[in-house]
């Protein structure tokens, strides 16, 4: 005898009962009696994917709902509702990265405007800016 979780449909009760393992030529299952209404309770041991306990049990349904919240990804629409501090931090980091990129772009444009009038240095400056962007993009830093 081992302790197995059962759900009684008649009395709508989740319960852990001592169950006996029954093996037939067709199937293997756990069998017990309900503590309240004495109904026969069965759990499929050889085919858990089709065991009705997993979709009938209120205890498992509540557990699944709790775990569903833990599995929410940042791209999901309800991420902001459940993980407000993490969402705010991600937004703040994203805004800082965008501001940094805008500042770098302005610095680059100012540098180019400073040297654009001299035809002999304009090409060198443009190549230096392109090389810097290529290095920045290959290292992944922005």
Essential attributes:
about 140 residues, 2 domains, 4-stranded antiparallel β-sheet, alpha+beta
3D structure, described in words:
This protein is α+β, with helices and mostly antiparallel strands and 142 residues long. The chain folds into two domains: 2-62; 79-139. Helices cover 52% and strands 20% of the residues. It has five helices and four strands, in the order ββββααααα. It has helices spanning 53-56, 58-70, 79-82, 84-115, 119-139; strands at 2-8, 13-23, 28-33, 40-44. The protein has a four-stranded antiparallel sheet, with no helix packed on it. Helix 4 packs antiparallel against helix 5 (119-139). The protein is rod-shaped and about 95 Å long. The two termini are 63 Å apart.
């Amino acid at each position: 005898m081992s302790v197995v979780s059962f759900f009684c449909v008649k009395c709508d009760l989740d319960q852990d009962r001592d169950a006996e393992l029954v093996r037939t030529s067709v199937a293997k299952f756990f069998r017990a009696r309900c503590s309240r209404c004495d109904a026969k309770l069965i759990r499929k041991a050889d085919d858990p994917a089709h065991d009705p306990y997993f979709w009938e049990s209120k205890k498992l349904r509540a557990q699944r709902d709790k775990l569903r919240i833990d599995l929410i990804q940042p791209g999901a629409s309800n991420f902001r509702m459940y993980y407000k501090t993490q969402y705010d931090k991600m937004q703040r980091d994203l805004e800082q990265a965008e501001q940094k990129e805008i500042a770098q772009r302005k610095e680059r444009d100012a540098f180019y405007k400073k040297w654009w009038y001299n035809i002999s240095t304009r090409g060198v400056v443009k190549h230096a800016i392109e090389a810097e962007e290529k290095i920045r993009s290959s290292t992944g830093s922005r």
